[in-house]
Every structure is written in C-alpha cells, then in structure tokens.
Amino acid sequence: MSTSAVPSVLFVCVHNAGRSQMGAAFLTHLAGDRVQVRSAGSAPADAVNAAVVEAMAEVGIDISAETPKVLTVEAVQSSDVVITMGCGDACPYFPGKRYLDWKLADPAGQGVAAVRPIRDEIEHRIRGLLTELGIETAA
To answer: What is the pTM of this model?
Structure first.
C-alpha cells in the first residue's frame, strides 16, 4: 500500500463500459472517501452500457453521468490495487502493486436481466475487498 492513509483502487476492463464501471461505483458507494477509486479501459467505448446503468439504478446507484476513460500508465502507477476484469495483457504491470484478476462475464450486448448476476457478483467481491482492506462499508 502507499504511504497515504487512503488506499487507491483501479478497475480495468476492455471498454470501461460495464464491469469496471460497476466495480468503481460499488466501491465509491460502499467506501465513500475512505478509498480513492478509478476505472479505465484498454479500448474505451463511447458510452457506458445502458443495461449496466439500468442495473445499477435498480440498487440505488446512479452511474448515468459516467464516461469510459482510457487506461494510462499513470493510473496504474498511482494505484495500490489494480483489479482487472478481462483486459488481458493490455494492463501494464508494475512490481509492488497488488493485482487481482476477477473473472466475470462480459455484460456487453446483454440485457439488464443478464447484467444483474454480474452486478451482484461484483458487489459481493467489493464487500470482500473492503474487508481485506479493513474498511467498514458506509452503506
């Protein structure tokens, strides 16, 4: 971890339009300002997946204003934990960082019914991550 009192977590997937957006939104929702949260994609889409926005709204989290962001070396370097979700070899590796590779179905092209179980699995994993980091949930 960094010397900062606030850990930094970066979520990465290919398009930054689904899984990484949900991960970042859940972590922000559950940890508040106790964790610095970023998300990015190796090949960002033009917009966040509409079914993902709808699925997150169902659990009271509004990500409708989010936009996919490009993955940068700086984002990885300044993060304590890097969580990849299907970005393959596109994610740069730096010694000393904690990397987690979460194998999750890709919500691209799926309807909201298919996105719900992915959303719920991401929430479950975020809660586990917070426990590992010693951070109580805000919600």
So the answer is: 0.92
